[in-house]
Structures are given as C-alpha cells and as structure tokens.
Fold this protein.
Amino acid sequence: MIDWREQEVRNETSSREINEWIDDANQHSGLPADPFVCECSDASCLSTIALTHLEYEGVRAHATYFAIATDHETPDLDAMVSEQPGFSIVLKLPGMPARVASASDPRRTTQHPRGNGEG
C-alpha cells in the first residue's frame, strides 16, 4: 500500500504532467499564456499560478522542483527554494519524495516524448 506521503508526491507529479501539456499548448498557440495548475500535493487543489515560459523552464530544469501557489507547501515533502509574486518554488526533500519526483520527470531522456500516447 502507498503511504500518504508517496500519494501526495504522485499528486504533484500529475499536476506537473498537466503543466507540461499547458506549456506545450502555450508555445504553439501564439496567444497569451494560459495559467498553470498548482503543483501542490493536495489532489483537490484548484488554484492556478501565472508563470512566464522562462520561469516555467527554470522550474522544469530540475526534476525535483515544483511550482505551487503561495503557502501550498507541505513541510513533510517540500523545502522552499524561492517565493515569487503569486507562486512559490519548492524542492522535494531527499529520500522517497525526491526519488518519486525524479523517476516521474516527463523530461527525462529515458522516457517517451510527451504527447505521443506511449507509456
């Protein structure tokens, strides 16, 4: 059985996947960027956050970084990296949180490119 901390990290990685789709759509639409979803551990969170493409890429450059709404961090899983107007960047703590985040990073070269329907 998955413990609550692992389930919460999996919630965050699901939000990260959604944001990858949003970022891809934003890059190809030519329209103003859609807001990203909060990548916090609360599966029922409906908050959105506004990041520029460069800010988003800064977060995605690290497999264990997540962009969350202000004050949505989970101290058992996260360490604060920085606070920006309207959002924060957190780092998954060493151990299981960082392992799950790294293993599910959609930008890992060992995984299939996003959007091809393979898994």
